[in-house]
TrEMBL record:
Residues 28-320 form the Carboxyltransferase domain. Coiled coil: none annotated. Transmembrane segments: none annotated. NCBIfam families: urea_amlyse_rel (TIGR00724). Keywords: ATP-binding, Hydrolase, Lyase, Nucleotide-binding. GO terms for molecular function: ATP binding; hydrolase activity; lyase activity. This is Urea amidolyase-like protein. The keyword Glycoprotein does not apply. It comes from Bordetella trematum. InterPro entries: CT_A_B, Cyclophilin-like_dom_sf, PxpC. It holds the Pfam family CT_A_B. The lineage of its organism: Bacteria, Pseudomonadati, Pseudomonadota, Betaproteobacteria, Burkholderiales.
Amino acid sequence: MPLEAHIEVLKPGLATSIQDRGRQGHYHLGIPPSGALDQYALAAANLLVGNPEDAAVLECTLLGPTLRFHRAALIAVTGAAMVPRIDGVTQACNVALAVPAGATLAFDFVQAGARACLAVAGGIDVPVVLGSRSTYTLGAIGGLQGRRLAAGDTLQLGEPGPGAREGRSLPQALAVDCPKSQTLRVVPGLYDHRLEPESATSFYEDGWVVTSEADRIGYRFKQGRALRFREREQPFGSGADPSNIVDACYPIGSIQVPAGVEPIILHRDAVSGGGYAMIGTVISADMDKVGQMQPNQTARFQRVTLQEALDARQAYRERLQRLREALRS
């Protein structure tokens, strides 16, 4: 192990990766934003340990890692209820915790939600790639060699800021809520007119269940009624599937339904375009909720107007501002 390493990865967990707020301005080149799937949890974890909101953290999915700290550190765990243990002693989430040099940090099984953000004062120190430290595994860029953590990896930390203070806690009203059932608000998409009227209605009436195919690229849902697309002569350049279109851009949160069977919500590592019709887009204020859903949990989609989506975005920003004020006071 290199002498300068501050954290040693003993067990990597299920899908632990380094993430920050993400990289912007490259989606038109096919490079998605990446970044933490729960952006609010990212900000909360960093503020708890006195970091800038966009410092790099470890995003821990369903099963957390086991880490040995070779330098005393201040940590915080937010997002999913993934209870930390320092040298076997159970600790609290949403609190700034001191980890002594030589101690081991592990996690209990997740109790609610899917992704926890583990922030360390000073941030995870890896190279900045295209303006971000976030890991994009499909492109093998960012993070630690462009991949998830593996046993034997070592991580360096930046220097803690003056705001690092043990015991700072997140007010319960501002903690991340991870219910087993979600309502996801959707602005109808550019291609919802391709649906038969009964399918345009049933999509919002039915309950949907998250499949095992739920990751940073996209969340697939099942058990709702199959959607029927209006019959037409497919235009030149599109495929034979009734949901195919001539290639178009995909916004993050857009919903496509290959063959009309299982809707997929594209998330922060998704490709930037393709040949499936987008019947709607989950609003930005609800994308954190998607990232906290586990397989077999349920969701309903709620149609909203663009103005309602903008109002929800403003409410999200106001909650984030209350978080800043609470943790900087």
